[in-house]
Design a protein that fits this description.
The complex is a heterodimer of chains A (116) and B (113). With 116 residues, chain A is mostly beta strands. Chain A contains no helices and eleven strands. The chains are: A mainly beta (116), B mainly beta (113).
């Protein structure tokens, strides 16, 4: 059973360009979460999605950032007009449907975004 | 706001030593507390704790939760160089935050041969 897949693993963008980060959850998982890890900081929650729905986007910056998890295909985290401060590791996690009250999340390897 | 504080921030030991990592938290509506190990890439799940006083154990690692005093500890016995990593404690709260994990800043463990 393959784990959570993320691509690309490394992404370099110039200021003002767009970054698209992809996440394929583990097989059978329909809940996806995105986290950001800035240099020398801990993991910070960004957004929680189920198929075709955004459940909690309380950690998303108000501008330039968006996320989707379509019926078919991977979840996408999109950053428009990137700035140097967006340079970070972006991790995706997934959890299975029907976990009830408990939320065990499994993480992907991350995408390291560098903005020049 | 939910909060997680880990201590110590870093720890250096020699192989064979036993270490205890601490995690204290503040939360309005507790659901679970999770421990992860992060090496150079993905955080790897270790334990999920939901009830006080019940020890979870996996090999040389064990963890316990105290919901009255709002803390958890992660013990590693007979440490090995492969245990060197950042250990992350995360809180899952209920209510409108039920999907979100709030992480501590991590404890950097270095095990020397």
């Amino acid at each position: 059973n393959a784990g959570v897949m993320q691509n690309p693993r490394h992404l370099v963008r110039r200021r003002g360009q767009e970054a698209r980060l992809r996440c394929s959850p583990m097989k059978g998982h329909s809940h996806v979460y995105w986290y950001r890890q800035l240099p020398e900081e801990g993991l910070k929650f960004m957004v929680y999605l189920q198929k075709e729905n955004i459940i909690d986007e309380s950690g998303m910056p108000k501008e330039r950032f968006s996320a989707e998890f379509p019926k078919e295909g991977p979840s996408i985290l999109r950053i428009q007009q990137v700035v140097r401060g967006d340079s970070a590791a972006y991790f995706c996690a997934s959890s299975p449907r029907g976990t009830g009250s408990y939320n065990e999340q499994f993480f992907g390897p991350g995408t390291r975004l560098t903005v020049l | 706001e939910d909060k997680v504080v880990q201590s110590p921030l870093s720890l250096v030991v020699h192989e064979g030593d036993t270490v205890t990592l601490n995690c204290s938290y503040e939360v309005t509506n507790f659901r679970s507390l999770l421990w992860y190990k992060q090496e150079k890439k993905a955080p790897t799940f270790l334990f999920m704790l939901t009830s006080s006083g019940i020890e979870k154990k996996s090999g040389r690692l064990s963890s316990i939760l105290d919901k009255k005093e709002l803390f958890s500890i992660l013990n590693i016995t007979a440490t090995q160089t492969g245990d060197s990593a950042v250990y992350l404690c995360a809180l899952n709260a209920g209510g409108t935050s039920y999907g979100k994990l709030t992480f501590g800043q991590g404890t950097i463990l270095t095990v020397h041969p």
